[in-house]
Design a protein that fits this description.
Elements (H helix, E strand, L loop, with lengths): L8 H5 L1 H11 L13 H36 L14 E6 L7 H9 L6 E7 L7 H10 L4 E6 L8 H12 L4 E5 L3 E2 L4 H9 L4 E5 L2 E5 L3 H25 L8 E5 H6 L2 H5 L5 H11 L3 E4 L4 E6 L3 H18 L1 H6 L5 H11 L4 H21 L9 H14 L5 E4 L2 E5 L5 E4 L12
Parallel strand pairs: 1-2, 1-4, 2-3, 6-9, 7-10
Antiparallel strand pairs: 4-8, 5-10, 6-8, 11-12, 12-13
Helix pairs in contact: 2-3, 3-8, 3-14, 3-15, 8-15, 8-16, 12-16, 14-15
Length: about 425
């Protein structure tokens, strides 16, 4: 018989575990005697560590940019107009169903410190549960030119745009403010937005928002993400490249500017018609302004299933609207990257901890920029869930929107529905 093997087979299978453990602890480590260590093995581990370090560094850079962008946004001084210089405007509000707090949301638009405005509400039919609320508020405020428009069943997938087209045809003023039914504002809202629209070369003003969660755990998590990660991305984009997009819940523009980009008839083909509206105006040389006024976005109380479906739809829409920007969102999730580095190479745990601390600082500064109250305890859970949904957004081209399933092409346009036309309205949740 030949010479006995120096180490049994089971020990040889553990070689790489010893190697990795020693490497992770860093420095000059003594490996168990007799274990063959190749430069190829150590080089592979070194490459992984270096790669993770680059990712964590990129995420740290993003958090620093988010802090700087939040401070720059906070430094903006609100615009104002003399009462005699405030142009009349039309508020367009699509409605669909009975949102949480709908009465208070709609009432806030009646209670504006603004001299001349009208409010138009739109529903698909008289049977809509929002109709009694709208009619009661109209009756309570006879001094406001407010009316309800019955649009009929939407012939297009994006019924919100169908309702906007109906109201736009009925509106009396060139300056329009489109606001979802789940938006709540304070009395100075219209004056602030109208003043910002009066700026040179301004074609569109879009409002950031702080999310207010409903009663469900999942909506509270989503509100944390909207008030930190999401707004950080918006503010960084504004700082680095200027605003070339709009945020859907509230947009102010003029009829002439809408017509210049093909009108709502053109925008209705897109899932993210708000983004396309701002992007096309910016491409034509007009200025898109992120308002200094942050609206209150009441996101409701979705259970787990609908909330995940909503997040997936949002991610797939964003991937098609801003492909490069969507890939860059990888760095907006510092927690999973920092954890991966700490688990793979524990010697780097101080760096991982520092990046997590920086991330919390960025979350605090960005949420304060939009006057949002955030429960930072839930921030890690939200970031990990958001990272998982961001990853899922790379796969598939179908979305589910209010029980109907659609195919979206690479430009974010509706292609088909598995179950006929979708009827969505009001807010786009």
């Amino acid at each position: 018989m030949g010479k006995a093997c120096r180490h049994p087979p089971i020990f040889r299978r553990a070689d790489h575990r010893f190697l990795r453990s020693a490497w992770l602890r860093g420095g000059r480590r003594r490996f168990p005697p007799g274990i063959p260590i190749s430069s190829k093995d150590t080089g592979a581990i070194s490459y992984v560590t270096s790669f993770l370090l680059l990712l964590v560094a990129g995420s740290a850079v993003f958090t620093l940019l988010a802090i700087a962008a939040a401070e720059r946004y906070r430094s903006v001084k609100p615009s104002s107009l003399e009462p005699g210089g405030m142009p009349p405007l039309s508020i367009l509000k699509p409605l669909h169903g009975l949102d949480e707090g709908l009465d208070e949301n709609l009432r806030s638009f009646f209670d504006q410190n603004y001299p001349a405005f009208e409010i138009l509400f739109a529903v698909e039919s008289e049977e809509d549960r929002a109709v009694p609320v709208a009619r009661r508020l109209i009756a309570e405020h006879p001094e406001i030119a407010a009316r309800l428009v019955i649009c009929g069943a939407s012939p297009i997938p994006n019924a919100k745009v169908h309702s906007l087209r109906c109201m736009l045809a009925e509106s009396r003023h060139d300056l329009i403010v489109m606001a979802d039914s789940d938006v709540r504002v304070t009395p100075e809202f219209l004056a602030r937005v109208a003043a910002e629209m009066s700026g040179p070369n301004v074609a569109l003003v879009t409002c950031p928002y702080h999310a207010v969660a409903g009663r469900s755990f999942w909506s509270r998590l989503e509100a944390i993400g909207l008030n930190t990660e999401f707004i950080a991305g918006v503010l960084v984009a504004r700082m680095l490249g200027g605003m070339d997009f709009a945020l859907g819940p509230t947009i102010a523009t003029r009829k002439a500017h809408l017509e210049e980009i093909g009108g709502l008839a053109e925008l209705q083909r897109y899932l993210a018609e708000d983004f396309v509206m701002g992007n096309r105006l910016a491409q034509r040389g007009w200025q898109v302004v992120l308002s200094s006024y942050a609206i209150e976005h009441r996101i409701g109380s979705q259970p787990l299933g609908p909330n995940l479906s909503h997040r997936l739809r949002w991610n797939r829409s964003t991937r098609r609207s801003r492909p490069a920007g969507y890939v860059g969102q990888f760095f907006t999730h510092p927690l999973p990257l920092a954890l991966a580095l700490a688990l793979w190479s524990p010697g780097w745990w101080p760096l991982s901890l520092g990046v997590i601390g920086l991330w919390y600082t960025a979350a605090w500064r960005t949420s304060k920029a939009i006057q949002a109250n955030v429960s930072y305890i839930g921030l890690p859970v939200q970031d990990l869930l958001s990272f998982a949904m961001w990853t899922a957004g790379f796969f598939g081209h179908h979305i589910t929107w209010r029980t109907r399933r659609f195919t979206i092409d690479r430009l974010g346009r509706f292609q088909s529905s598995d179950h006929g036309l979708e009827r969505t309205n009001g807010s786009q949740r």
